[in-house]
Amino acid sequence: MKRQSAFVTYMGQRWAIVFLVLEFIFFSILGRGFLTLNGVQIVLFYGTTLALLAAGETFVIVSGGIDLSVGFVMGFATIVSAKLVAAFSRMGLSPGLSIALGVAITLAIGVGPGFVNGFLVGHLKVPPFLATFSVQGITYGIALLLAGGAGAAKDVPILANLIGNGYLLYWVRGQGLSFFIRPEVARGTRVVEMIPTMVVVTVLFIAVGAYLLKRTRFGRYTYAIGGNIDAAIRSGINTKRHLTLVYIISSLFATLAGIIYMLEYVTGKADAGASFLLDSIVAVVIGGASLYGGIGTVWKTMLGCLILSVLEMGLRMMGVPTFDKFIAVGLILIFAVLIDQFFPELIHKED
Amino acid sequence: MQRVRADAREDASRYRAVSLLARNWALLFLLLMVVVFSFSGKNFFALDNFQNILRLATTTLLLAYAETFVIITGGIDLSVGFLMGFSSVLSAQVIRKLCLAGWSPGACIPLGVAAAVLACLGCGMASGELVSRYRVPPFIATLGVLGVATGITLHISGGFPIGDLPAVITDIGNGYLYYLHPASGKGSFFRPPAAVTEAQIRELVRVFPNATVLIVAVLAALWYLLKHTRFGRHTYAVGGSTDAALRAGINVRRHLLLIYMLSALLAGVAGVVFVFQSGIGNHTSWGANYELFAIAAVIIGGASLMGGKGRITASTVGVLLLTVLENGLYLSGVEPYYRFIAVGLILILAVVIDQLFPDLF
Questions:
Q1: Are B337 and A325 inside 8 Å of each other by CB?
Q2: Which range marks the domain in which residue B117 is found?
Q3: How many domains are there within chain B?
Q4: Residue A64 — very low, low, confident or very high, per pLDDT cuts 50/70/90?
Q5: Does the pLDDT value for residue A91 go beyond 50?
Q6: For residues B312 and B65, is the Cβ–Cβ distance under 8 A?
Q7: Burial class (CB in 10 A: 0-12, 13-18, 19+), B222
Q8: Is the pLDDT confidence value at A350 over 50?
Q9: What count of CB pairs under 8 Å joins A to B?
Q10: End-to-end CA distance of chain A
Q11: Mean pLDDT value across residues B171-194
């Protein structure tokens, strides 16, 4: 009896990874073209947005808050970056330079919504969901205003598309490998594309985020605040400043997701990220983070992201309408929270 | 001695005056806006436009009433906007299918409405059970229900609006209580006077939209419910202090369940009103932000997110304030996208004021 419960606990703590493997096997058998190089790459490629938003959300949820604005901050960033890049390229700068400048300035602007969120939550003690909920409305309004109601596709150089949809490696039989640049081949020759560039960029940034949360003093403070904010204040942590930084990080990850969206689709869209809000929170919760704060890691959140991305793409490759995904995601959220509530020992180790 | 007492009395009356002003700032602001827009907006100050504002505010009013009850108990309901889309798609689909099957509109419309409202009650029961029995934080519980409801909505509609409904639906939804033809002095209730010819239709004066009749009825019922019944007193008690409410013998669990069901019910009615006004059932887009407007209206009305405070009439003023702002800006030639920014800023301002000066309200 005792061994069985130990086994249940062991599996309960790893249910996400078990679920992911089962899901993978299920779709490999039933999904058309799922278990191919392209199939896997598509899952990763479309998973980048969710992964970045969820990584930012992890910081906020670990600190005991919630960020409802990530989706619209991302949409805001798609429009700002598209507008900036287009403006620079119209001014006569080279495509490469205008993209680099546009991306850098967008990242700087992306600090803004996070700062407002963090200031409201940290300094003025506004409940996080309400502060971020209001900021969501404001960023959406500004994004629509900038876009004039339509997309912002005009004059973005074609190079953006090459970067956004490029691959790290190209392989042609007989010609060998080439990095980043698609080899010129005769029509009909098969070019094997490996590892989308944007997946590499995403993984790099998420690795930095994971390091920040796990190995630095900043990360330890975040856990401390989420675990018990009064204790954190008494032990001398500047919680106001720290919470502001946490919301800025979340906003920066959302901005990055927006920039990558702009590079992939070569346009801006104000509600590009809106439907990802629910997914990003669910991914964090599946990863075992507690909505009461203090628990969660970026790598486990990535597990949650993979589960959701595989689910969405797998359903799509099976020909099931992706609308059904929302039902599944909503149910997963409710169940994960209920398990967190009643069997915390199943998910969290006793350390 | 006497002077001290007189001073104290003066202070108290001054405090009462300031407090009265602070508590009714939304109403004052609303009146101020009406005055400003009457000068700056083209055709703003007209019977037609005022009735338009009331008509356009109908769904937001219903959603704000739903939020009012939830916010007084100290919770929040993020799903109302999406439940409205759910209800509109479900009712439109049921009505369309039944009408195609040869049923008379008189039979299929009530059935469609009942189906949608009942389904919404089910959703409300789900969030209510999660919040009351399983202690899930309200915004997470309603976020989960939102996902499920949106999935089902999109499954039913395939992502497209559902039209092809009997014309009587929009006749009722966009109709007026009384029609008057000033030239001939003829008038009639609910439909244009029979004697009025096609050419004279434009001269008709329409008074009091049907949708507003509904709102007045709902407002009166909810006002009575909140202010003069045990249910209402318990709602304030639960929001003020759950522990105290428990000790006073209130069945908090059952009460919260009923509150979330009432909220979902009102969202369902809003969805039905949407169908009656637009003639289609459509899912709520991710960028619609209906919740933002509803919650902002309730907070503008002086409710506290900590619970225990809030009035139905004040929420009504909050919605009218937002709708007049939107309508007036539009008629003054300002881009409509400013409304999101304005609402977000007002919401932040109201919450910060509530946080910093809690005794003002």
A1: no
A2: 26-353
A3: 1
A4: very high
A5: yes
A6: yes
A7: buried
A8: no
A9: 142
A10: 23
A11: 82
